[in-house]
């Protein structure tokens, strides 16, 4: 018989919590990495009814809450409305997120989230049992950095989706967190390696200095490990990549020219960091960040 020793029997710390803000700080995406899917699923159900929450999605072990910034006090009720996000407020490059909950939901709102990686500081009330509890965590304000990549392989060797993930994983750090990786199915053009798939990487960066270092390091790694002369790498700093959706739709339905892709990138605020023919597919990948289940389906539509 094994005797179990638990340091904190009534707390399951979240792995990490991040906040991505739009250009005006009117909207944000709260991204939570959970260590317990059951608890995260319960929270997702209840938090989705919070007045400031606009949309909730699950991606692997991540729950992503799209919220309108502000403060709307919650009326907590056992079982039916037991927990939620009460406030998301941006100030001085930091984001304060206030959670509230009853009973076990209060533990999740306080101790569990306060101990997550990415939290700068926190304030919590006592929780557990039958208590109503509230907790505020403060995390760095981040902006979304999207990197589209295509054509790093040849018919003899390589796989772009593998290389891009491995590079992103190595560059993941506190200043530039690696958030998601999507394979994007494109129109099967004649010049494809095999499956005609590009990749988009999503990062959350704290400032422009960290962002530029990240991009330099990605390009350097691609130059080192790519086995193709046609590698394309593009970058977009955007909350939703809406300006590229029409291009992506075109690229997933027909064969486009290199000249058209380069002109589109220039006219829609996309920086080209490697200008091989892979730019065509790399550009089309950008709007599919954090949508890996949909991006692999040829006729899927972006919201």
Describe the structure in your own words:
This protein is α+β, with helices and mostly antiparallel strands and 303 residues long. The chain folds into two domains: 126 residues, no CATH class; 145 residues, Alpha-Beta Plaits, CATH 3.30.70. Strands 1, 2, 3, 4, 5, 6, 7, 8, 9, 10, 11, 12 and 13 form a 13-stranded mixed beta sheet that branches. The relative contact order is 0.13.
Report the end-to-end length measured between terminal Cα atoms.
53 Å
Number of domains: 2
Please give the share of residues in helix: 25-40%
**Binned strand content:** 25-35%
The gyration radius over C-alpha positions equals 21 Å
Quickly give the CATH architecture of the largest domain.
Answer: 2-Layer Sandwich
Summed up:
Residues 147-272 form the TiaS-like TCKD domain. With 303 residues, this protein is an alpha+beta fold. The protein has helices at residues 37-47, 104-114, 160-171, 208-225, 245-251, 258-267, 279-285, 292-295, and strands spanning 16-21, 27-33, 53-59, 62-68, 70-71, 83-91, 94-102, 121-124, 132-150, 176-185, 197-205, 232-237, 271-275.
Please supply descriptive tags for the structure shown above.
single chain; 303 residues; alpha+beta; 2 domains; 13-stranded mixed β-sheet; 8 helices; elongated
List the helices and strands and how they pair.
Blueprint: E1 16-21, E2 27-33, H1 37-47, E3 53-59, E4 62-68, E5 70-71, E6 83-91, E7 94-102, H2 104-114, E8 121-124, E9 132-150, H3 160-171, E10 176-185, E11 197-205, H4 208-225, E12 232-237, H5 245-251, H6 258-267, E13 271-275, H7 279-285, H8 292-295
Helix pairs in contact: 3-4, 5-7
